[in-house]
């Protein structure tokens, strides 16, 4: 058994496993890993010998398990496998809020596996960059400072530099909420509103992220770190982001490739459901929810934002 395993052989799980295998052997679990050569979700990336692939979960239960599944499937996976996972270091790599429970991945893990130590790995990082060994800085969040420090050392590599925090809520919400704002930024560009409009979306979107995250107990400074502002900048400015590309398609009235993981769409709906409960105003996120659900047409989106009462910044 390897010291670290990765559950979820999508683009991100595979990239993390490739990066960590440069340091020590890693096991990567996926429900279908019978690829002829490389993972089609991460084309062009050779899998190193130190990476063991398996579709048998019992062969992938290391003491430290990275959970790299999309946020909307994590709850079901935990429900099915809680007993096998409990008691380990379970590190969520998902960037979303569960639409059924309106909770983040760390709370889902806590609820399913109460004896586990829960962590969050998040921050600006495209899977393809990590897999190619490009320099990347991420946030490792763990409420227990000593365990966080041990995990930071275990999961950092020469190219992957982990910063640590004990603010699990702030770190995971930064990663989840930036996906919603990235859709809005993409929609602004796709609709032809220009770079100045995008800068407004990023800035006012960041204000929304901070309002919601702090209402849920996050420390505001966590939002200004890699997991919040850092990832927001990456995702709102690069067509490498699926959330940004989804927004581009929405804005331009084009179809988007079905089956693509776009965490911000479901998370926007979760955020729209949370906002009134918490008494926070989140106009951009609510708009993204309406666009993603098809309740709001793109041609009305700008009016909805611009016709709100003028206010102090
Ligand atoms: N891609 C990236 O650059 C980054 C992604 N992330 C985050 O990582 C998470 C995963 O994203 P990513 O890897 O990109 O997604 P992908 O779309 O590349 O892959 C999703 C993976 O989830 C698997 N899966 C889906 N449903 C289930 C299920 N019910 N049980 C088991 N496995 C399932 C899929 O398996 P199958 O192939 O069999 O369908 C696939 O391997 C997301 O929260 C994302 O925000 C974070 C940072 C960067
Ligand atoms: O989270 C990511 C980069 O940090 C990946 O973004 P997308 O899911 O939008 O592709």
From TrEMBL:
Keyword Zinc included in the entry's annotation: no
GO cellular-component term (any): cytosol
Catalytic activities: sn-glycerol 3-phosphate + NADP(+) = dihydroxyacetone phosphate + NADPH + H(+); sn-glycerol 3-phosphate + NAD(+) = dihydroxyacetone phosphate + NADH + H(+)
Location of the Glycerol-3-phosphate dehydrogenase NAD-dependent C-terminal domain: 167-302
Lineage: superkingdom: Bacteria
GO BP terms, alphabetized: carbohydrate metabolic process; glycerol-3-phosphate biosynthetic process; glycerol-3-phosphate catabolic process; glycerophospholipid metabolic process; phospholipid biosynthetic process
Transmembrane segments: none
Catalytic site: 178 (proton acceptor)
Chain residues that bind sn-glycerol 3-phosphate: 95, 123, 125, 178, 231, 241-243
Domain Glycerol-3-phosphate dehydrogenase NAD-dependent N-terminal: 4-146
Subcellular location as annotated: Cytoplasm
Binding-site residues for substrate, renumbered to this chain: 95, 242-243
Annotated signal peptide: none
Function: Catalyzes the reduction of the glycolytic intermediate dihydroxyacetone phosphate (DHAP) to sn-glycerol 3-phosphate (G3P), the key precursor for phospholipid synthesis.
Family statement drawn from the similarity comment of this UniProt entry: Belongs to the NAD-dependent glycerol-3-phosphate dehydrogenase family.
Protein name: Glycerol-3-phosphate dehydrogenase [NAD(P)+]
Organism placement in taxonomy: Bacteria, Pseudomonadati, Pseudomonadota, Alphaproteobacteria, Rhodobacterales
């Amino acid at each position: 058994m390897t010291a670290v395993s990765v559950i979820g052989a999508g683009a991100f799980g595979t990239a993390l496993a490739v990066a960590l295998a440069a340091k020590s052997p890693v096991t990567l679990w996926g429900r279908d890993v019978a690829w002829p050569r490389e993972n089609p979700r991460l084309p062009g990336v050779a899998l190193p010998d130190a990476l063991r692939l398996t579709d048998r979960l019992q062969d992938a239960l290391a003491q430290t398990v990275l959970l790299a599944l999309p946020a909307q499937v994590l709850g079901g996976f935990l429900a099915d496998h809680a007993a096998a996972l409990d008691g380990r270091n379970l590190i969520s790599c998902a960037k979303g809020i569960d639409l059924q429970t309106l909770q983040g991945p760390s709370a889902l893990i806590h609820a399913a596996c109460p004896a586990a130590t829960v962590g969050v790995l998040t921050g600006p990082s495209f899977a393809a960059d990590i897999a190619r060994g490009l320099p990347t800085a991420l946030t490792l969040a763990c409420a227990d400072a000593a365990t966080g420090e041990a995990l930071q050392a275990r999961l950092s590599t020469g190219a992957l530099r982990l910063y640590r925090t004990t603010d699990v809520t702030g770190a995971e919400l930064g990663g989840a909420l930036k996906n919603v704002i990235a859709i809005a930024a993409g929609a602004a560009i796709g609709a032809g509103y220009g770079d100045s409009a995008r800068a407004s979306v990023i800035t006012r979107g960041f204000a929304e992220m901070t309002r919601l995250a702090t209402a849920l107990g996050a420390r505001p400074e966590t939002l200004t770190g890699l997991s919040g502002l850092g990832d927001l900048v990456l995702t709102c400015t690069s067509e490498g982001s699926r959330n940004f590309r989804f927004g581009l398609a929405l804005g331009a009235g084009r179809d988007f490739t079905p089956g693509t993981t776009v965490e911000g769409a479901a998370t926007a709906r979760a955020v729209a459901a949370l906002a009134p409960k918490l008494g926070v105003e989140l106009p951009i996120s609510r708009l993204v929810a309406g666009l993603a659900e098809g309740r709001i047409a793109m041609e009305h989106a700008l009016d909805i934002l611009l016709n709100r009462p003028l206010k102090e910044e």
